[in-house]
Amino acid sequence: MTRGRAAVWARVIVAPLLVVAILWWADPGRVVHAVAGADPVWLLAGLAASTLSNLVSAQRWRALAGWLGHRIDAATAAGVYFRAVAINALLPGAIVGGDVYRAVMLNRRGLAALEAGLSVFLDRLSGLWMLVVLGIAAAAWGVAGTSAQVLVPAMLRAPGADALATLAACVLMAPALAIVVLRRLGAALGTSRAPAAGWRARVVAAAKRRGAWHQFALQLVASLAVQALSIAAFALAGRAVGIDLAAWSWAAAAVPVFLMATLPLSFGGWGTREAAAVVALSAFGVPVAPAVGASVLYGIFGLIQAAAGGLLLARDPRKTHRATARQ
Q: Which pLDDT band holds residue 209 (cuts at 50, 70, 90)?
């Protein structure tokens, strides 16, 4: 057995064991009771927020692909994105499988492999970047609150509101600094005596690509919308099982929960997400069973959307490829 296959089988075995361990720790009966008694109004609102988040994500990725040289219509981008959501839910490796699928589909449509992969990488990085910014800003807000000594975990009180706010601002502006550095690097490589070739040529081309600042602003707004909707979906799932926390608390807790869900140790984040939810929400006084219940419901929002993506995947691939070729 090759090392790659061994890693896949390890995930296949570890992922369900991790879910079982979390449920056992939380008491399966209590988790089932919390999920079964969830308020349907909050659930529908959470599903709507989660779905809208993925729709905005698809258009954010579409904008990056267009900037990198390949235009794709809104409906096609959404279709590819939800197929990727289905792959993420079906295959071990968290978000890796779906991201590879998106890059491959762009490459089949004519975008060079490097740029296709870069569009997916930058899209994923854009989301993680804004998630961290919102989480740090939320922690700063909580620390600065009048009831901070009661509501804010000790780990967040230590840095202080000012330090956290400064850190959030620095992380927010980090991509702008990266743009400046890359442009200067590209200019230096472009004016060197030796002609740019290979990866150097790609660096020069990327650094000189027009619309970088416009794309930065677009990614900032789109990623803010994506993460705000995702955090809202998580909070609404929690509200459905009776968890009542301030909005900033959900934003702060969402950072470890969403990051752990991206680890390539599970199917669609199951298990790692629930473990992170227990730890993050316990810092705000939430018992284990409701914390797991909120995470499970948030995961179910994703499964419902994965089912829709699965229906798209079930289409005749030859028909899909012919349609792609005509475009």
A: confident
Residue 30's domain comprises: 3-159+210-326
What's the number of domains the chain is made of?
1
* Structure tokens belonging to residue 267: 């199917």
CA 269/CA 94 separation, integer angstroms: 5
**Helices 288-313 + 28-36 axis angle, to 10:** 60
Residue 23 parent element (H or E):
helix 3-26
Give the integer Cα–Cα distance in Å for 290 and 274.
11
Can you read off the two tokens belonging to residue 115? 């740029």
pLDDT number for residue 51: 97
Query: What pLDDT score was predicted for residue 228?
Result: 97
Alpha-carbon distance of 132 to 106, in angstroms, equals 28
Asked, for residue 105, whether it belongs to a domain, the answer is yes
Q: Let me know if 312 is exposed, middle or buried by CB neighbors in 10 A (0-12, 13-18, 19+).
A: middle
Q: Check residue 243 and give its pLDDT.
A: 94
What does the pLDDT read at residue 133?
Answer: 94
Say if 221 falls within a structural domain.
yes
- Report pLDDT digits (tens) over 153-178: 655 555 677 788 888 999 999 988 88
* Angstrom distance (rounded) from CA 107 to CA 56: 22
Residue type, 73: D
> Which among 206, 229, 208, 234 is positioned nearest to 122, based on CA atoms?
206
**Which three-class secondary structure state does DSSP give residue 213?**
helix
Both tokens of 319, joined, read: 């028909």
